[in-house]
Amino acid sequence: MEMLGWVLAVIAAFSIGLAKGGLSMVGTISVPLLALVMSPVQAAGILLPVYIVSDIGGLVAFRRDFDARVLRTLVPGAITGIALGWATAHHVDDAQVGLIVGVIGLAFALNALLRGRVGASARPPRWGAGSLWGTISGYTSFVSHSGAAPYQVYAQPLCMAPLTYAGTTTIFFAICNAVKLIPYAMLGQLSAHNLSIAAVLMVPGVLGVLAGLWLVRRMSPRVFYGFITWALIPVSAKLIWDGL
């Protein structure tokens, strides 16, 4: 890669680490950033190992901070979504998927801001909603590592404590990324060239995890949920713009 490509790749890897450290929506910009200098498919292949290594740091940090009930409602749907992504990999238009994810994310963020959802009474985990949004999240995560917006539509109204939210999110996407390894390898996205670039990017990825942990442990619930809601707006707008 040229210098610009490496700069964008380092920023993308650091954003992945921040996401695994608890600032979940920040990682959504990783593939769009790297896709500015290469195909989205190659960008996703390069960044998956960075996600995996960052997941390990997040799993260690949040090993006691998660909600197993939420995970039980989400994971079966997510695995189904990943399987659908694998089955349709050669027929998927990245821009169209990004457009759908962007519309969902923007609609949710605007609704949360206009109606004051942050700080509202918590909803309980539900199998129906969890399966639906888990499937969408798994599918979009497989296509372009952009499963955070659909996940947030389901998870944010549950009003978990910030550390519990961060831990549940980290474990959910760690499971998704582990499941994605096999189909990604079979599709040729884990080539030696991509892995060599990913190896370098693991350093800023781990540094991002540490930075994310430092920040999320110092945020109040109101600031935390306000941050991830506002962060969803520019990310969703970028996905919509690219899709259009």
UniProtKB/TrEMBL annotation:
Q: Subcellular location, in the record's words? A: Cell membrane
* Gene Ontology cellular-component annotations: plasma membrane
Q: Which residues cross the membrane?
A: 43-62, 69-89, 95-114, 163-183, 195-216, 223-241
Task: Indicate how the chain sits in the lipid bilayer.
Answer: Multi-pass membrane protein
Which InterPro entries is this protein grouped with? TM_pro_TauE-like, TSUP
Tell me any Pfam family this protein matches: TauE
Protein name in UniProt: Probable membrane transporter protein
Which organism is this protein's natural source?
Paracoccus thiocyanatus
